[in-house]
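name: query_chain
kind: protein
chains: 1
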Amino acid sequence: MACTSKLTTDLLNDCATVPKTGLAASSKAVLINQEDIDLTSSTSTGAQITDLVLNSGTTGYKLEYVKQLASTNSEYAPSTDAVSGFKHNFLGRLLVATNDNAERSQELANGRYVVVVATPYGGEDKYKVYGWENGLEASEMIYNVDENSGAITFTLTTPENAVEPYLYMTFYETDDATSKTAFDSLFASV
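structure:
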């Protein structure tokens, strides 16, 4: 990646695009085991992924949520002695304290993931990707019967001493329908 140390275009207000908060009404995220991504076949230009390819026989995993009970955030992490970049966070929850979710919690705690979420925006800005270069790891997981309606809350974060090159990346493959199909099929590879 070339290091850009100056602006390359105007920062204009697009009156046709209204700022929107939260994630899309689709109420799901796709969590992909980072090691399942075929980086040699996947393609990206700048902050846009145009083809997200998984290794044969692998799939992403759906995390369903209701209302605005999942969120993402990113922040700039300046450094004087290492590469500066961005830290990504995905905040999610497992809504019911079941045996299956106890097992998923253990898997979440020990894996590294790339997260794709649908946002309220359209076109090439709809699907945001977090952790593309370094993955996201569990940094917090809480189960308290008296908080969050008894749900298991968790945060996936950029690993310590790592940064991502962009505030987020976007996924857009060919057109809206193709992108939605890839997202809805959990990017599964046969």
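note: The chain has a mean pLDDT of 89.
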